[in-house]
Design brief:
two-stranded parallel ribbon; 5 helices; about 45% helix; five-stranded mixed beta barrel; alpha/beta; about 230 residues
Length: about 230
């Protein structure tokens, strides 16, 4: 009769271990899928943006042309796309002139000498995004149409000077890259590590094998003077 509490405790511990293992296994699987999902949507664009080496301080831009086109043939590129995985059948194509004069130093109506003229203008380094972060109608209204000719801040690539974007932050880009790589991989490693420790006896023995063992007075080798 006295053994019942121990049996019940063992049963509760086994149940808790089972559900914890289920959660850890699910976390490991979801971490893999999350990382694979983040590669095309966050990791690749962030790496491309960092390699493009955009000027961190906004320079002065003016829209030179704004074209609204329809049809896949006419929308071979777009300044803004709502959705990064589908082709655009309607698109806004905005071209800009930009000067490397920092926007904060520009004083209208002083004329500017353009360093690059009539080049493509993108909403961000990817040229696309998802609402509410990216709204192409609002973007086109802000930088094209009746707003053409009004100076505004923009960012150009120091590696590809013909690439100009409306939004860029080196800090945010690096932070998104680090988080998208670190979080899924750390969750996967932690989950697999705990499961391996619980269900792989050989893993535990392998860990103890490489741990440094300090002798004490109770060891036979210590008494024999082997140390």
């Amino acid at each position: 009769m006295e053994e019942k509490p121990e049996v019940e405790m063992i049963s509760v511990a086994e149940s808790a271990k089972f559900y914890a293992s289920l959660c850890l296994g699910t976390t490991a699987i979801l971490s893999v899928f999350a990382f694979l999902f983040l590669i095309p949507f966050v990791v690749d664009p962030a790496v491309a943006a960092l390699l493009a080496d955009y000027e961190p301080e906004p320079v002065t831009c003016v829209a030179s042309r704004h074209i609204y086109a329809e049809g896949l043939r006419n929308c071979s590129w777009a300044s803004c796309r709502e959705g990064c995985t589908r082709e655009a059948t309607r698109c806004h194509q905005i071209f800009v002139n930009y000067s490397r004069v920092p926007f904060r130093d520009y004083r209208p109506p002083v004329p500017l000498e353009w360093d690059v003229a009539d080049t493509r203008f993108l909403v961000n380094a990817e040229g696309c995004g998802y609402p509410p972060g990216v709204n192409c109608t609002r973007f086109a209204r802000q930088y094209g149409g009746e707003s053409a000719g009004t100076p505004f801040p923009c960012y150009y690539s120091r590696v590809y000077p013909d690439v100009v974007v409306a939004r860029y932050s080196w800090d945010d880009t690096l932070r998104h890259l680090v988080l998208s790589i670190a979080i899924p991989n750390l969750l996967f490693a932690a989950s697999v590590g705990v499961l391996s420790y619980w269900y792989c006896p050989g893993c535990g023995r392998a860990c103890h094998k490489y741990m440094h063992h300090f002798p004490n007075e109770d060891d036979e080798d210590y008494e024999d003077g082997a140390y």
